[in-house]
TrEMBL record:
Name of the protein this chain belongs to: DNA replication protein
Signal peptide: none
Coiled-coil segments: none
Xref: PANTHER family: ATP-BINDING PROTEIN RV3427C IN INSERTION SEQUENCE-RELATED (PTHR30050:SF4), CHROMOSOMAL REPLICATION INITIATOR PROTEIN DNAA (PTHR30050)
One Pfam short name: IstB_IS21
Amino acid sequence: MTRAHFADPQPAIGERLRARLEAKLAERGIDPTAPLPDTPEPIPALEAAQERIPVDYRDAVVEHPDVAAWVRTITEAAVEPNAGGLNPHFGTAGRRRIAHGPSLLLWGDTGAGKTHQAYGAIRALTAAGCGVSWHATTAADLYADMRPRAGVDPEHMLRRIVRVPLLLLDDLGAAKGSEWTEEITFRLVNWRCQNRLPTIFTTNLPPVRDRSVPPQQPVLRDKIGDRVLSRLSGMCTPVHFTGPDRRFLRR
Ligand SMILES: Nc1ncnc2c1ncn2[C@@H]1O[C@H](COP(=O)(O)OP(=O)(O)OP(=O)(O)O)[C@@H](O)[C@H]1O
Ligand SMILES: [Mg+2]
């Protein structure tokens, strides 16, 4: 064994190179000895999503275990943009995109936190690095947007919403129903069910009547019909929300 093995380790970079690097950093106003900031880097996709989320739900985080499990399932099923393609674009892998997967039916008491958890899930998927193209609407707004008016092609609008990779359809069954609203709901749910497109539905109504439902209380099946309910039960994990109205608790 020679003495060289016990010599001081060589500096990782030479003194002249170090001086040049420090000069460059100083030119840019960077102090290499300053402690690193402990605030996390903003996630651009999440920042963009925040703009579109109603103010009340911008800090929403997933708390319900069934919603958290769903977010994990969707994240794990997200695919590389060119996965399975015959012509992979080398070097441009990009972010994974939400593909196919199960849906959620968040149902229960007014103000129990269904919409909050729905936006929490959208935020979580965005923060997980999934390329999330999403749309959120209430059923009532969807029907209002679909009313024929000048300069708007409702068919085109419906086709776009129906095909979006991740959809939140809030307050299903709350709007006054008609044959026309039933048809729109059917077309939307049918397409998303057949194509296994992840959708979060929320509703105040119990899905079906059982002994726990008072006779005068309507259920979702009464509002949307058997055929839509059948598809929802095939595609969704139902998650029941109970508890006091949090809007009253906030006062
Ligand atoms: N986990 C939570 N942490 C903090 N605030 C919450 C939470 N869940 C709900 N909230 C707040 O409570 C209020 C009611 O929640 P939310 O709108 O999600 O209820 P909801 O179940 O969708 O009600 P509705 O049936 O009337 O649509 C909102 O202001 C929301 O931001
Ligand atoms: Mg709600």
